[in-house]
Input
Amino acid sequence: MTKPMPVLRGVLITAALATFILPAHAAEPLKVRIAWVVPVTNIASILFDKKGVAVHEGKSYTAETVHFQGTPQMITALATGDLEIGLLGFSSLPLGVENADLTDLRVIADELRDGVPGYYSNEFMVRSDSPIKTPADLKGRVLANNAYGSAVDIAMRALLRKSGLDARSDVTIVEAGFPAMKAMLLEKKVDLVPTGLPFAADPALRGAARTIAVESDALGPNALAMWVARASFLEKHRAAMVDLMEDVLRLTRWYTDPANHDEAVAIAAAFSKRPPQMFADWLFTRKDYYRDRDGLPDVAGLQRDIDIQQELGFIKTKIDASKYVDLSIVREAAARLK
Output
């Protein structure tokens, strides 16, 4: 048998070593899929459309934003490993823990809060010519919500309870998607609808309806949308996740900077294929939901929200919110930007 020549032997050894050495230095960026539901309002939908701000994208991570119809599908995707970051609110986080047995879910950052003083809160609206003036006048009426157990549904039921009404016997509640709420109200199919941004900014709705209460009347400031991941994923990919959250904070600060408002509106309009005037007056201003500069949720407020959810019978067990929160990554990311 012919022996390899010395030069050829050296080439073969070098090639063999490369198969072990190169992956350590040329590892693929971590792919992170981030969920969103409502276009533009859920900032993940447009976050990475602003180029030149994120410094780690394409290096330590790549971000893919994924649209979901609602949180139940996200919880399933988190359970099966088909989603890295879900968008859950106070109403859905306990369901993931209690019903899906995902006890390793962790809130890693805040996205937006409803009803922070001076900022927007979801509205409950009736027709302008309706005799309904307060929630107490809703007895015997037909109300819409977007889904049983959603944040607005829980707020609606808490609001009815504060007004001395029983959601099970004093009113009729039907489900509809937020895009259909305006038509259902104006066509007199229901007497009250909940609405939030961007749908609440529709001039046609504003011209034909009025607000009798807001979500914070029932719940106070509440955890409407938080970024949630599984503890095992965070432990395995901590360094890349800190890089991601650093870029997320950097981008969020760019979008919410008044100096960038016109460009941010243009990005939102292009993404949603709606005219800029649909966003110009409120998007990323104090007329919008509250967004924390450092991505930090109000954990005490989240606990209050979950307690109300339990009181209304949506969850069975007492859930300690602090056990499902890990803010170490976003805190480290924020510290880099000081």
